[in-house]
Design goal:
The strands form two sheets. This protein has an eight-stranded parallel β-sheet. Strands 1, 2, 3, 4, 5, 6 and 7 form a seven-stranded mixed β-sheet that branches. The protein is an alpha/beta fold and about 375 residues long. It has two domains: about 140 residues, 2-Layer Sandwich (ornithine cyclodeaminase, domain 1); about 200 residues, NAD(P)-binding Rossmann-like Domain (Rossmann fold), CATH 3.40.50.720. The structure holds 1,4-dihydronicotinamide adenine dinucleotide (NAI) and the ligand O=C(O)C1=NCCCC1.
Length: about 375
């Protein structure tokens, strides 16, 4: 009997570590993977007869949380069917994966990231585990990219469409300069075809962390041939002042951003999770904005106490752009929009698959099942 009968050709799954993930993942390809995830989830949310046959579908239950002494373990399984790996390609793939990720807030005191995870990628035909992808950087780039995609579809595209030269420039505010704040700031400066970044305002509870991010963004300015200014702000109010786009990425359990800090028209990506997922913005912000989510299934569970006008999923906004039937879900032209980012398994599924496929391409494809 062949040694592989009853097992499979590859004896062990591929392990793709953080350094490799950083080499393999690119902001533009990640964007396509995240758009596919958003669209797959929203296509699936439609009535079966109203689904688009040319778009991906998904299966993604609400994630589970297991509380431990020092933090929490999240289990995030998902399947995305018939998604495109690269923009414009005819090739489709289906991916089954599960991210296991922990959030241990006090890890900074022992020099570790507070969020640590892995994505397990399975064959969607045999169910065999094919790859384990370290998912700290992956979670950073996928979460920042989800905010970039939401910002583009909800705020920048409409702004570009009404700008005489089709160009938009923004003042960006980053409230919380930890790992996610840093990834979001870098994401905005690396993808300036969406909007030129004019100014970046930074606030962090410990100002030294904002100062560190300022240094990094000054380095990025040279690499990206940009000319934005970067300011470290003493207060959240000062950070938000005159911003067009804001990212909140803290662990705060208390409101940090109030309506009076904000311009009339602003887009906020609310990413951080304190005790619950909508703690960073004050009720007077939620009273006056339109909220967009990544997925209803998760929102029903994790945003159950949110009092606001939830318009719908970002993926449904994207689907209606390309298949213009029915009313537009876009924010009111002079209103405030909030992308309430929970984070969802489908994002890790499509980005995990992208990393794995790029790894196979870069190495020996022949070891594939
Ligand atoms: N929506 C999503 O998909 C994801 C959300 N997250 C959430 O994003 C947040 C940031 O995560 P990371 O940057 O990885 O963590 P990190 O540990 O690198 O940074 C945490 C940040 O929160 C700030 N912070 C903590 N408590 C605060 C308080 N009470 N008031 C003001 N600032 C406070 C810290 O100063 C720091 O800037 C967390 O809440 C995390 O759960 C993380 C990953 C994905
Ligand atoms: O979606 C994720 O990944 C996470 N979301 C909330 C905090 C931990 C990681």
């Amino acid at each position: 009997m062949s040694r592989n009968v009853g097992t499979n050709k590859r004896l062990r799954p591929v392990f793709i570590d953080e350094d490799l993930v950083k080499q393999l993942l690119d902001w533009h390809e990640a964007r396509h993977a995240i758009e596919q995830a958003f669209v797959a989830v929203s296509n699936q949310s439609r009535e079966p007869g109203a689904r688009y046959g040319d778009q991906p579908v998904s299966s993604q239950p609400a994630r589970t949380f297991v509380q431990a002494e020092g933090g929490v373990l999240l289990c995030m399984p998902g399947f995305v069917g018939q998604h495109q790996l690269t923009s414009g390609s005819d090739e489709r793939t289906s991916t089954l994966a599960c991210k296991l990720i922990t959030s241990f807030r006090k890890n900074a005191s022992v020099g570790l990231p507070s969020i640590n995870g892995e994505v397990f990628v399975f064959s969607s035909t045999t169910g065999k585990l094919e790859a384990i992808v370290e998912a700290n950087y992956l979670t950073g780039i996928r979460t920042a990219t989800a905010s970039l995609v939401a910002t583009d579809h909800l705020f920048l595209r409409p702004a570009r469409a009404s700008a005489p030269d089709g160009m938009v420039s923004i003042q960006l505010g980053i409230v919380g300069c930890g790992f996610q704040g840093m990834m979001h700031a870098v994401g905005f400066v690396r993808t300036q075809s969406m909007a030129r970044v004019r100014t970046i305002r930074l606030w962090n509870r410990t100002p030294a962390r904002a100062a560190q991010l300022k240094e990094l963004l000054i380095e990025e300015r040279k690499k990206t041939d940009s000319n934005y200014s970067v300011f470290v702000c003493d207060t959240v109010e000062d950070c938000c002042r005159d911003c067009d786009v804001i990212v909140t990425a803290t662990g705060s359990g208390e409101p940090l951003v109030y309506r009076s800090f904000l311009k009339q028209k602003v887009h906020i990506n609310a990413v951080g999770a304190g005790e619950y997922h909508h703690a960073e913005l004050a009720q007077d912000v939620y009273d006056d904005c339109q909220v967009y989510i990544d997925h209803w299934e998760g929102a029903r569970k994790e945003l159950a106490t949110l009092r606001s006008n939830i318009v719908g999923e970002v993926g449904e906004v994207i689907l209606r752009e390309s298949h213009p039937k029915g009313a537009s879900l876009l924010p009111k032209p002079d209103g405030m929009s909030v992308f309430q980012s929970l984070g969802m398994a489908s994002e890790d599924v499509t980005v995990g698959r992208l990393v794995y496929e790029k790894h196979l391409k870069a190495h020996d494809r022949s070891d594939r099942d």
